[in-house]
């Protein structure tokens, strides 16, 4: 399975969804998290970066995949909304069969 980096998994989780992380090994992120008020507002996660239609996580870009919240690293492979319109956008991860 290969992620197509569409960003739909981060679109409607809330601006501060990234606060679910455990940043004890990342003091800069921990300081930022301590200063950030949690907002479950249904907006895209503020760590989502879209460039030329390709999604990336700012945490992963700056600190590596291990720094991302566990819920993001371990997000289950679900049916993608691209293939199953019954799945709510932003609540399923998008994977395509690798060929």
SSE string, helices as H and strands as E: EHEEHHE
Report the average pLDDT across residues: 79
Q: Which term fits the overall shape?
A: globular
Distance between the termini: 9 Å
Helix content: 10-25%
Uncertain spans: 89-93, 95-99
Q: Which radius of gyration do the C-alpha atoms yield?
A: 14 Å
Strand content: 5-15%
Give the class from helix and strand content and strand pairing.
alpha+beta
Notes on the protein architecture:
The chain is an alpha+beta fold and 99 residues long. It has one domain (2-96). Helix content is 18%, strand content 12%. It has helices at 27-34, 58-63, 70-73; strands spanning 2-3, 48-51, 54-57, 95-96. The strands form 2 sheets. It has a two-stranded antiparallel sheet with strand order 1-4. A two-stranded antiparallel sheet has the order 2-3. Strand 2 and strand 3 (54-57) form a beta hairpin. The termini are close together. Residues 89-93 and 95-99 have low confidence and may be disordered.
């Amino acid at each position: 399975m290969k992620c197509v980096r569409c960003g739909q998994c981060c679109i409607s989780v809330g601006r501060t969804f990234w606060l679910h992380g455990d940043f004890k090994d990342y003091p800069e992120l921990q300081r930022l998290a301590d200063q950030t008020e949690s907002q479950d507002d249904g907006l895209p996660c503020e760590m989502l970066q879209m460039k030329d239609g390709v999604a990336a996580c700012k945490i992963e870009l700056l600190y590596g995949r291990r720094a991302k919240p566990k819920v993001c690293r371990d997000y289950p492979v679900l049916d993608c909304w691209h293939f199953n319109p019954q799945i709510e956008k932003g609540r399923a991860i998008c994977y395509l069969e690798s060929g």
